[in-house]
Structure formats: structure tokens, C-alpha cells
Amino acid sequence: MKYNTCMRAAIWLWLFSIATAQDAPAPYLQVPSHRQLEWQKQELYAFLHFGPNTFTGEEWGRSQSRPDIFNPTGLDTDQWAKLLAEAGMKGMILTAKHHDGMCLWNTSTTAYKIGNGSWATKRVQTGLDIDVVRMAAASAKKYGIKFGVYLSPWDIHRDPAMPKPGLKGTIYDEPQIFGDSSPGDYNALYVEQLTELVTMKLADGTPIELFEVWLDGASGSDTVQTFNWTGFRDVIRQHQPNAVMWGHQGPDARWVGNEDGFTLPTNWHTISRTQDDVHYSGEELELGVRDGRYWTPSESDARIRDGWFYHADEPSKSGAALMDMYMKTVGRSVNLLLDVPPDPRGLIADIDAANLKEFARLRNATLDRNVVTPDLKTSSSSVRAGDMDSYGPSRAIDGREDTYWAMDDDESTGWIELDLDTVYCVDGFIVQEHVALGQRIGGYTIDAMDNGGTYRAVVSNGTSMGYKRIDLLDKAVETSQIRLRITRANAVPLVQNLQVLGSRNCTGR
């Protein structure tokens, strides 16, 4: 009898555990593709605007100078890549063709290319490469950073509304096929150029792998040209399936809404329009759309100088100014694409290089001070199905990308407590959602326990969390206990990472 009672109890507990246990959380609405997740991890990389404008002082290349204007005296793409890598930047995107239409690679689609200038002629005579895109890609690979290209859809060189008196009667006086009412097919030309870039190989025959392709929609002309975005995207997907495509509204990454290196404190990774739809305003893109129809995270394109191309009379932003920009982009879950234009020598200017290095020093001094280790004691308001091994709060501090703290599906608010084991002077936090399963969290607060044993809010205005949020305090607090509270979420929150920035002494940042 006693045996049967025990058996019945065991069976009942087993059945109860089956009835109450929960599987892993289901994806919430839109989720990122693998390429989008990998792209988001890059966080910070460089834009390199380089071409005829570098030598004419222009931004858009309306002068339509001949290729001889391109004459760098000391071009060294290795210098670019080495410097960017040392500055902690994960990649670089080169303007293979800007609005002026002059191509930096040895294209077969047009005579308007640097390969037809005197600089290239001299290099060929000495056996040197003249394909700047290929050279830059090789340098990026050499120094372990990623490579991408910008190919302007608008092409002044082919636009009949843009005067070109200096090219008349030369081999550069080419058919004006840009525009829906113009003879010829500009979209076909663009597809040819795009195909050349996405199938390009290094000198040793190794295919170039692109991490991003920039499809800028800017135009300064009244000429109406309907771009075949679908066809452009198909070419990229076919040949560079891992490349993220940037456009005003995607399809993979969107404009942040301004060119000044910031976004709003609240930023959603989703929107509800595509590149083919009516464009959102800048303010709408800064915010995004909570629970939108498409996963289209933001990228902030900003500049180290006032212009995109190098101009000697423009100041270079200090390391501190760049750090402020970083906090208002990467610190708010937005990738930062920082323009660092080479000068007429074909080198990144000394002052820009110095400011990039100071920027890197400030980032490291600020962010490389995580006092959390995986062995610290944690607790939480609840744990999904009581499964501490899979979903306990310790999963938020184990340093892994595939684990997270989670509660049951019917819970949208809760907390994690972290015992730092000793008193620290804490002045910042890094928190991350497990966005592989969607963006859920819309409000959070971080508390620090004071000397009297009372929790006090030190971050009280946290809104969207997303891929990564960095919160720095105006003044360090002494504490040994931290609590992260999720105050609002549209589905069960998944906290992937909680870091606490601080030190044993209170000297401050």
C-alpha cells in the first residue's frame, strides 16, 4: 500500500512537471536573419569617401572632371586598414562610385574610370595595381577587418540634366541614359557595375566577400529615374548572400534618420515599410516602429569632418566628440558607420588618425571595466518552468550569446539581482536582449543598493533595449548589489547580457 502511494505520488509529480514545463520561448513577431545578426555585432566601422572629389574640393562631383584629376601621391590602402583595425573598427566601406560616376575599379562599363587617368598609366608602367577597390579589399583582409562597397544609383555622368562641357568631344562624352525618358537602359548599366563588384576577386583569385552594400538613394537632379531595386537586390543576394543591403528603409538595414551621429533614446529594430514604399521622415526612422512588420535595424552614417570627402580646411572631430557620438548610436542599439575620408595623398590624415586612436582609448577606458564574472551569485523574480540550468539569471552573466534569463510566457515584468561580492564604484551598465528571438523589452530600470541596504534607481528611464544599451552614470555609486528590473515588455523578456562597469576604487572615469 505504501509502495503504491509512493508510486502514485511520483507519477503525479511527473505528469505535473510535463503539464507545467515550457519549451524555449517562441520567436516574437519579426526576428533578424543570420546576416543581420552578424552585421549588428560589428557595431563600429568606417566609411571611406574617396575619388575625384578628393582632388576638386567638391562633395557631389558636378564639375565632371576628367580621370586625370585623380592623382594620389602616396596611395596606401594598407594604411587605411591597419589604422582602422588598431582603432577598433570592424570594417570599412569604400565609395566604389559616388554620384560623379567615376569608377575606382577597372570596370568594362564606362570609360569614366580612374584607370584611364595619368595616375593609373604611370602605375601600370611600373607593374602596380590600379584597381583601388580590389586594393582596399585586399588590405581589409590582410588586417582582419570586413569590407563593403558603396555604389551610387544616381550617376551625374549619365544624367542629361547635368552639364559636362569639359568632357565634350572626348571618350568620356558618353550616352546620357540616366532617366526614365532618356534613351538606353541605365538600370542595365547599374546591374553590370554591381555585378562586377559583387563578383570581384583579389589578385590571387580569391573571391572578395562583402559584409555590406550601400544603396544610396540621394539625388540632386530633377531627372526622374525609376530604379530597379528588386533587380539590384537579386544580384547582391545571388553573389553575396551574407552581405547586408543598406537603403533608406532596408531591406536589411535602414537609415537612422540623420547624418549627425545620434538617435533617439528609444529605438526599435523594426519598421513597417520597405525600400519600395513611401519613405518615412527622418524623425520616424530615428524611432522605428514597435512591433513593425520588418526587421530593419538602424545604421548611423556620420562624419569625422564636416564633409564626406576630405577638405583641408575642415576640422577633425576630437576623440571625446566621437565618444559622445558612439554613446548616442552604438549605446542605443544602432551601428555607427563613421566616415574617415583619405586625403589627396591617398592616406588618412594624421589628425584624423590621432583622433581615431584617442577615440579607441576612451572607449576602452570606459567600457572595458566589467566587474561581473560568471561565478557571481544571482537571483530573480522567477525562472522559466523553474529550469535554472537553461533559463536562470546566471545565464545573463555567462558571457554567451546563445543563453539568456527568461520567465514563463505569461510574465512580462520581473527582475534579476546580482551580488557583486564586494563593494565597487559603479558608473555604467551594458544590457542586451536576446534579439535572435525578437525585440520585446520597452522599459527597464537599474537599481543599486546603498550602504543602508536600500535599492535606489540609478538608471530610471530605460526604454527599448534591443541588441545593446549602454547607460553611463553622471556620478559613480558605491554598491555591492545590482538589480535589473524589466518594467515593460510585449512578450516574456529575454535578457542575454548584463554587465556592470566600475572599479574597486572611486577615482571615477
TrEMBL record:
This is alpha-L-fucosidase. SUPFAM superfamilies: (Trans)glycosidases, Galactose-binding domain-like. SMART domains: Alpha_L_fucos (SM00812). InterPro entries: FA58C (IPR000421), Galactose-bd-like_sf (IPR008979), GH (IPR017853), Glyco_hydro_29 (IPR000933), Glyco_hydro_29_N (IPR057739). One of its GO terms (molecular function) is hydrolase activity. It comes from the Eukaryota. PANTHER family: ALPHA-L-FUCOSIDASE (PTHR10030), ALPHA-L-FUCOSIDASE-RELATED (PTHR10030:SF37). Belongs to the glycosyl hydrolase 29 family. It is an enzyme of class 3 (hydrolase). Residues 1-21 form the signal peptide.
